[in-house]
Amino acid sequence: MSTKKIGVLLGSLVLSTLGVVASASAKDDAAKGAWERIGEVPAAVLGETPWIRPSTYVPFQTDLEALRAILKEAPREGKGGMPLRMSVPMSVGTLALFDVVNSRMMEEGLEAKYPLIRTYVGQGVDDPYSTVHITIDHRSFHAQVVSPGGISLVDPVTMENGTYYAAYNPEEQETKVHSWVCHTEHSVMTTGYAPRGFTPGQTGDRRRDLRLGFAATGEYTVAVSPPGNPNVAAGLAAI
Asked: What are the extents of the domains in the chain?
């Protein structure tokens, strides 16, 4: 092979590599910029049926369909490939970066039947000790970030709107305290009880995926579905 041909081949390889890097960079840039913090949720949106209304939260907005397209680029967990680097709103009002992969929670047949329901997991970039679990379905996005500093949740403000979200800390919310009465006799609590110690340990180095079945009542499905339109997809996504 002549020197000229070698130079052309190397040039093609370099251009090809640069194209792959540029493509990955563009996807990451889009994923990082998918969220925008806003001053407040529009009053018209707050007038719709609530999904979650924390007493303290930071409002964000996103383009749900654009976010769905971005998440489709995340590789399947355990199959290799570069994780998708994306930003997730935090309860303190900032955006945190995570390396995200597609982590299937439904069996293949069920996943094929409901293609808009997808789940993802991610590891923190800014905080390597933090993890995120993400669900995106036919109408909204949900995220749970767990870190040594606590828990941060992201949920839609209303059931009908997939644009506006609340980032909040569940431990900072006001709770209603109800009076209660314990009807259990004290003798039951003290007789025959022996405290046992618990020693945490590793169960092995092999991952096991378990196949589980879940059921929900009709009332639950109605509660998590859009008003007047109870459906299986909404119940499945909520579970």
From this structure: 24-186
